[in-house]
Write a structure and sequence with these properties.
By secondary structure, this protein is an alpha+beta fold. The protein has 3 domains: 79 residues, Winged helix-like DNA-binding domain superfamily/Winged helix DNA-binding domain (Arc Repressor Mutant, subunit A, Orthogonal Bundle); 110 residues, no CATH class; 96 residues, Orthogonal Bundle (Arc Repressor Mutant, subunit A). It has 15 helices and 10 strands. Strand 9 and strand 10 form a beta hairpin. Helix 1 packs across helix 3 and helix 10 runs antiparallel to helix 15. The chain is globular.
Amino acid sequence: MGSFDLAGHSFSFSGHETFVFRYTWLKKAVDAVKADPRVFGKDDAIVTLGVGKNMVRSIRHWGLAAGILQEEPKSRGTAMQVSAFGQFLFGNGDDSFGVDPFLEDPNTLWLLHWLLISNAERSTTWQWAFNRFPSNEFTREGLLQSVEDEIRRINLPVPSESTLKRDIEVFVRTYLSGRGNRTSAIEDSLDCPLTELNLLEEMSGTSLLKIRRGPKSTLSDHVFAFCLMQFWESTGSAATSLAFSEIAYSQNSPGTVFKLDENSLIERLEQLSFATSGALSYTEGAGLKQVYRKEGIIDSLQWLRTHYADTHSAVTGV
């Protein structure tokens, strides 16, 4: 059993076919879907995408899990479309260019990480490990037991142990580079791009895994602000203030997803006013730490545009 439904939300422990996504896969998905929305259901998809049959299914899964693709309404998953975010990052097929189609900016990787962790429907283990697991240190067996216990708690059928083990191994390989000696550039390319984020480490001589908490030097203030705004909007709150504790510790919050310690998070929040041109601001007073937002519509995507425009200028000297 690969998926189950809870309170109207679908959860999954399969779909990736045991493959992590690779550097070219998301762009392949965007270009192929733009050319043919039904590409993933066709016999010649292996030729179009240049990969094996199982990898075709895996590319489809990762495109959906990362929010780059979405199913066309009423198509029952047979037809796909490129999401607005997919177009922003990867372009709209051959007729336009995205801001970072080849994943050269580490902030694109942070955004993909953010989207994966936020997607409990297709990345259940990922969401669980970063949001709900009680410790930043764990073993594969401990994570598996925790997931099984939660499924039993909500009184749903537990997937087979082999299914959960495979899913947990793919989760680990999403963030942890392959073990053993590297002998060629081809082997290097098989790692998931998110290993560059250095979020996960395996303790030497043990089976213990650790999610690294602390400052994230490659995460830009603009991208952080965009994710904070996405989190705020996801809460459905119309309030003009958001408590520090929510930003730091709530499920799917920037503090939780990026594993920022309190001091690092405060430093980020103190830069908000500059990064968002005053749309968001952070204050401390009377024992309260809060972020405030200006009234009216806030175009948080503009903060991403600013980041990529600044990055491009820094690289090209324009």
